[in-house]
What we know:
- By secondary structure, chain A is an alpha+beta fold.
- Helix content of chain A is 56%, strand content 18%.
- Chain A folds into 2 domains: 3-52 and 266-400, no CATH class; 84-254, no CATH class.
- Chain A has helices at 3-16, 18-54, 75-79, 88-96, 131-134, 161-168, 210-217, 235-249, 261-304, 306-314, 319-355, 365-392, 395-400; strands at 60-65, 100-115, 118-127, 139-142, 156-159, 177-180, 183-191, 196-197, 200-201, 205-209, 224-229, 256-260.
- In chain A, the strands form 2 sheets. A 6-stranded mixed beta barrel of chain A has the order 2-3-10-5-7-6. Chain A has a two-stranded antiparallel sheet with strand order 8-9.
- The longest helix of chain A is centred in the C-terminal third of the chain and has 44 residues, at 261-304.
- The radius of gyration of chain A is 33 Å and the shape is elongated.
- Chain B has one domain: 3-Layer(aba) Sandwich (Rossmann fold), CATH 3.40.50.300.
- Chain B is 35% helix and 29% strand.
- Classes of the chains: A alpha+beta, B alpha/beta.
- At the A-B interface, helix 1, helix 10, helix 11 and helix 13 of A face helix 2 and helix 3 of B.
Amino acid sequence: MRVFDVFKFTFHSLAFSKLRTSLMLLAMAVGVGSVLILTALGEGARVYVSDQFSSMGSNLLIIIPGKKETSGFNPSTFIGSTPRDLTVEDAKALKRSGLLKDVAPVIVGAVPVSRANLEREVAIFGSTADLNQVLTIKLKQGKFLPHTASDIASPVCIIGANVKKELFKNENALGQWLRIGDRRFRVIGILADEGRSLGMNMNETVIIPVVAAQAVFNTSSLFRILVTAKNQEHLLKAKQRVISIIKQRHQNEEDITVITQDAVVATFDNILKSLTYAVAGIASISLAVAGILIMNVMLISVSQRTAEIGLFKAVGSPPNQIKTLFLTEAVFLSLFGALSGIILGHLGNFAISNAFTEIAFVAPWWANFAAIMVAMVTGIVFGLMPASRAAKLDPVQALYGN
Amino acid sequence: MSDNQIALNNLTRVYHVGEQDVYALNDVSLIIEKGDYISIMGPSGSGKSTLLNVIGLLDYANQGDYLLNAKNVSHLTEEEQAKVRQQTIGFVFQSFHLVPRLTAAENIELPMLLAGIDPVERKRRVDKVLEGTGLKDRAHHRPEQLSGGQRQRVAIARATIMQPEIILADEPTGNLDSKSGSEIVQLLELLNENGITLIVVTHDQNLGRRAKRKIKMIDGKIDSDG
Lengths: 402, 226
């Protein structure tokens, strides 16, 4: 039988049973579509997180108090001592070394911020003027922290766009006073409506001098020190330098963890990639379900067309040809289902992208490819059994139906 | 011996129905010459359909040999049997067995489609046979739009399209009124006059008597022949 005739014959038989064919196509399309949409969600999240981190500048080092060790043990395991705190003095020492461009000590906490009778609980960032460069913060109005922020607890603050809106409404906030905890601060700057940075909503924060934050939170220890190297080539050298300076200041004990932004990005990247694969795997279960459905319907089709199969045998169609015809039908069903699923998936992603404009939901190229491949394999695997059943039918029984 | 197209030697076909063995063919021997016109008659369950199916290689004998054109076809594989059916034998059934989604022309074309014959040649042969069977204006009708007689004419056209040597007809007029029945018989006899061996299984005494050679079967044996 000619290949073209096989295709034409298959089309004919699929087109003849429209309801059956369209239901099968729908099942396969939903399966493939959900693979595409779910992988797009995973991939969109991954790209979004990567972008967030790279917006911070790739020569960033984050210093965290305490040494994270994954193997072996040190004396502190027995003693159970807590690691030494990072202090503003540590940050100053780092600032004095040549390789580092910006050093921003950070204290983070949440306290109520109030003005007149309005009060909001917001995140307070205690830091220095360097934070401006480290996080590439944009100001809408006013200026950033003064350079004395690491020494003098000057009562000034920079407020996020939402904080401004909620506490000052449409009034001019610059130069006004507000209360943070039990202290008063004068607003000297307002952040541009920027969205998120470092995974925090900067619109909902207030930035004050680090020394003032120590007083507000009654602590001398820092949450982090954020450091940028002069340039990216110096990143590794800067990292070693940071470790050696802090070690020297901490009685020769290496009790900090320095992570580069690349490592953070890579970690998130890996996590979200595995998430995408996992989600794709879950979605392919629906493909398997579609496959079983195809098998069911093909089996029904074989029993409905028993007489036709008997006739084919009578006019000299060999078993392999009958098998090919039924298998082609199953594969066509899966393939067209997959193609409509790809259209469905892309339309879905387009709709979601429009609904959530912050994140681009686009299915990765491999998802299209994998969906078609899985659909094909499903068609063949689940089409094989009905097809061989058709081929094995006894001609006399098939023709006379007994 | 050269004219012996079909030679059945001591064929036995046993069906197991429950605990019982039913002999559909019991030691049947038969020689059929090329161009013969044979009717096989007998009561229900006498084995006449089984005999036809064994000759058509749709069924097989448990014992005995079947020589078709002096070649033993008793032990062919399914693929080889299909080949022999395709090239040598045409079937006409009581219930027509047309594919409902195909038009008359497509139903006639089907054996050639399956055999992989060139489309141009297919068209030529279909046109010719449509003309010969008087179905030209019905070519693009589906079976449900055709009368019983027209359907059987389509089936006969399909049976002849591969230019077989033998036509096997199982109750070809069984589902037809007497007028279309006699038209169908005339069509089949015309084929026989052109040299095709015609074997007809029937209940119909009038149709049975028309054959040159009349075989009567009872209980899986040939009761009379002549």
